[in-house]
Amino acid sequence: MAAAGPSLFSENEEETAPYLKTLNEEQRKAVLTTEGPVLMLAGAGTGKTRALTTRLAHLLNTGRAQPWQILAVTFTNKAAREMKDRIAALVGDHVEGMKWLGTFHSIGAQILRRHAELAGLKSSFTILDADDQTRLAKQVIEAANIDEKRWTGRGLAMVIDGWKNRGLTPDKVPANEAYHFADGKGIDLYKAYQARLTTLNAVDFGDLLVHNLTIFQNNADVLEEYQRRFRYMLVDEYQDTNVAQYLWLRLLAQKHKNICCVGDDDQSIYGWRGAEVENILRFEKDFPGAEVIRLERNYRSTPSILGAASGLIEANKERLGKTLWTDAEDGEKVKVRGVWDGEEEARLICDDIESEQSKGRALSDMAVLVRASFQMRAFEERFNTLGLAYRVVGGPRFYEREESRDALSYLRLIRSSDDDLAFDRIVNKPKRGLGDKALQVLHKIARAQGVPLMAAARIALESDDLHAAARRSLVNFVDTVDRWARDAKDMTPADLAELVLEESGYIEMWKNSKSPQVPGKLDNLKELIQAVSEFDTLEGYLDHVALVSELSEDTGDGQIWLMTLHAAKGLEFPVVFLPGWEEEIFPSKRSLDEKGNAALEEERRLAYVGVTRAEESCRISFAANRQIYGRWQTAIPSRFVDELPEEHVDVVSEPGLYGNSASDLASHSSFDGAKLREDAYYDNPGWRRARASGARPASSPPLLEGRAKTVSVSAPGASKFSKGQRVFHQKFGYGKIQSIEGQKLTVEFEHSGPKKVIDTFVEAA
DNA sequence: TGTTCTCTGTTTTTT
DNA sequence: ACAGAGAACA
């Protein structure tokens, strides 16, 4: 297939191109509507990537655009890689010409390198990561003499990030937001932070976009160059764009207006990072004449899974609304299981996994998706005792680990002696007798003379400011770094990395440490050298790692997947386990406290993402008790459980979970009908026998009839207790009721202090 | 400079 | 419960 030059097809043939044949009606429309703004609303599992890559291939094949005239942006490197691979499958080598296919940040960096001087930078600028950013922010706070206890570097970095996400340079931050940080000093600190970045010839992630915006706004000619170049634009995961990215896209799209945004408002789960669902909700207003194409036919899941997910997401108010449908045959219903505690939950899920495995299901076809990473531990422990192979996605990133960052700092300092953050990090690591005292001297000189620390070190060596020991050590350090910089010219980067880690004593430092993590760290350093060896130049490698935080992933064959719901977006598995559906965990209490209803809707979208990952089987569970931060907490089932439509769900709840033993039944007069029926069901001989033998009841329990439309496993209603009453709790002992909120009581326990408990857990004392 | 202690903040984290 | 940071102390 050729891409260059005029179309290979006549008007008529275009519509019959072979790659269009496998698409459904909507997908075809999404491919063939090439001109003008298009919003492709693609629900989970509707073949979005296929539509999107075919669209790009079509633009190339019909000669509508040359590969370098297409801007295609994604959020992750992984998504960019996948898109590239799939386009290559359709158009072959022409994909290599698509130099504007990448993440927002990598494309922003490319553009910024070409016009760095317009942002007051040299084109060799370094890109700081989150850790550098925090340390820089901390330095800024220190320099401003602000109480570092109350106002942390991390806090400032977050505030600045928030502004950058909204495309705000210091002069544009609304005055009424000045008081968000350090009693009104926020904006000044932001200015100081930017000034430091300029001196360091560095940018943070947010700057990659914000500098682009400033350049475009102040240099019409530059903007126009790019507007002309990008005849077609394509944006993946549009629901996750922040304001800065939105502004960037809108500026670039003004000329040709051929922008196609693909997304799903129901899967917007990064609001806490500055993503604005409003961007997608507003698309038709922003781009008049936009064509909205809905992909609603789902190729992934069974009707029950889709039905459960749809019912759940319907509780959200702020959405464009889609109805997913499928031709697939009815499968099993979504299973909901209530258990006693987190440990049991892990045990039962692992039982299920093993039973699936014995039926011939591959481990890599199953995934456990959790809300927060602390929930992973219970599963890892259980997997380990059973000897089940598993694979955690996410977790500590390779390039964020201490040893990776140290090694990179050595390399950065060799590349550029101006890299103060790198200097700071490794000048005394391993210990070279260059402690706080010596560093203070260097910092003072650097600040006074406006030079980098390395230069300050040379100046200090000319003076009498340092003790003899420190001086000897510093001479040695400076000379060694100089020598490495010379060596770097005629060595491969990998050899250099190896040499540096040896000669610096860095490897030795770890070998001498008795920390149990040492073998892992040494392995990581070897892996890092391995990664370096894939690059021809040091610059190339450092530039790569600045924008990529993970090594390329190995495949998870023969392993169960364990990851957070966020990490699972975009993936699919035949069997999905969703543990921990309890109030305060999911939806997470913290996000609700911070952002209220908006956060609740986002949590609900997260639940929706979780359910829609499943192809055949989706198993939700909740525990009545859970250990969090070392303390036992009682929990009630998540409201999301209640929101699942009854007809698509099977509920299995153990007896005794919520104070429903026979004796409790007699004393709890306030239970409503649904609760009674649930208890009555489990208080039968069949269930008891099933429990005793460790098996599940022969048939699934009947759905509860107390509610017309949704499942109910919690028992709402007025509490039978009153404020001030003395009560007894099995775990916490005696206490006095402080306040009552429906079923939730706040009790001041005599031995363990104030706690929130569910009223069925306590009895009058 | 190294060790031990106390305090604090513990959701998600594509770049 | 627990890790990481910072302070106190040897």
TrEMBL record:
The question of whether Transmembrane helix is a record keyword is answered with no
A Pfam match is: DUF3553
Annotated source species: Durusdinium trenchii
For the UvrD-like helicase C-terminal domain, which residue ranges apply? Answer: 303-570
Q: What is this protein called?
A: DNA 3'-5' helicase
Q: Which amino acids does the record list as binding ATP?
A: 42-49
Tell me yes or no: is Endoplasmic reticulum among this UniProt entry's keywords: no
Q: Which reaction does it catalyse?
A: Couples ATP hydrolysis with the unwinding of duplex DNA by translocating in the 3'-5' direction; ATP + H2O = ADP + phosphate + H(+)
Question: What GO molecular functions are on record for this protein?
Answer: helicase activity
Name the PROSITE patterns for this protein: UVRD_HELICASE_ATP_BIND, UVRD_HELICASE_CTER
Q: Which PANTHER family match?
A: ATP-DEPENDENT DNA HELICASE SRS2, UVRD / RECB / PCRA DNA HELICASE FAMILY MEMBER
Q: Per the similarity annotation, which family is this?
A: Belongs to the helicase family. UvrD subfamily.
Alphabetical keyword list: ATP-binding, DNA-binding, Helicase, Hydrolase, Isomerase, Nucleotide-binding
